[in-house]
Structures are given as structure tokens and as C-alpha cells.
Amino acid sequence: MRIHGNGLVRVAARLALVVLAIVSVDACAAVVDARLTRIGDDVVIEASATVNADGATAWRVLTDYARYRNFIPGVRASRVLARHGSSVVVEQSDEVAVWRARFPVRVTYEIAEFPPRELRSFAKAPPLPSLSSTFELTNTDTGVRIDYVGRVESTFAPLGRLLQPIVEQTAIRDLEALAAEIERRSGAPRGNG
After folding, report:
1. Please, which residues bridge with residue 151 across strands?
2. Residues 6+ apart with CB under 8 A from 82
């Protein structure tokens, strides 16, 4: 995993991601490349991975919200509350780690699906900062490239800066878990991404 960034964001992200990388090194054959940048008080997370799978499998996993608890660490429950055409509301009960302590958090996602290539969501989980994100799937010669862009929005500055690394770590952890599950469901032999 390669992290690019500057200042305090880079130091905090590296610390969080080193722990994450140690935990998930065997879980995902795809390499997740992530870059964090700050725009004002917001943090933008750009991450990508190429998985050894086809686009249909990647889309099925990405939109299999009810089963996220089976393959994304920290997700305790996930259910679809409403579906209206391409709009979906999903509620998750997650567990976030802050140092050695773990805290429950309820997340509500408002999702817009654009099959089979794009998904946009807005996540609210008070008191954590909100997260706007986009997933894009692109077929490549070696599989499917997953591009993720998430924007962790600032809350009032002191609390927002403390909580942003938690949201950043969770977003990257989730992409690694999605990539691993896509490869597992594809039945393709694992490669180096």
C-alpha cells in the first residue's frame, strides 16, 4: 500500500494504515493505492485497486449491502431500509476502533446506483464527520479497476480533526475488504493485483 500526502494528515494516515495493512495483508491480493489530501478542513481520500474479476461480479459485491457484515471488518449489521429505483438507503451498525477502544456507531447511507459502473453515497454517522463518496468500476485487461474518491467533511474544527482519521481508515479498510470479496467471489486465482 502506498500513501502520498503531506503534514499531519500524512503522519496520522500512515499510522492508521500500517496497522490496517498488518491486519489485512493476507485478505486481499489486490494492492490498494491511496492518496490523502486536505482541502480546507475537509480530507479527500482517493484510492484504487485492480482486482482479478469481471465487472458483473464487482458490481454484485459492491451493491450486496445486506451481506457487508460477512466480509467488511467492523460491520456488525447492514440492511436496506428503502429502495426507489436507483436510490437506496442502507443502515449499518459498525464498530470503530480508537486506539485500543472500540465504539459502536450507526451509519446511514444514501446511495445512488448507476449500474454497472458507478455508485455514489453520502454517509452520516453522528458524531463522526459525514463522508461523500464515489466508486467507479472500469474493465481492464487484467480485471476490474475500482476507483474510490471520498470526501470527509469537516465538522467543528477540533472534533473534526480528531475524528477524520477514523473515517479515513474505515474508508480504505472497506475498499480492501470489497476488493478481497470481489476476488473471492470471482473464483479467479489470486495474483499480485
Report:
1. 44, 132
2. 88, 89
Residues 6+ apart with CB under 8 A from 18: none
**How does pLDDT run across 124-165, given as a tens digit for each residue?**
888 777 889 999 999 999 999 999 999 888 765 555 566 567
- Interatomic CA distance for residues 23 and 17, integer angstroms: 10
In the chain, domain spans: 1-63+141-193, 74-114
Q: What is the number of residues in the chain?
A: 193
SS3 category, 193: coil
Q: Which grid cell sits at 152?
A: 470527509
**Residue reference for cell 453520502:** 122
* Orientation angle between helical segments 157-186 and 55-62, nearest 10 degrees: 130
Contact indicator for 124, 108 with CB cutoff of 8 Å: yes
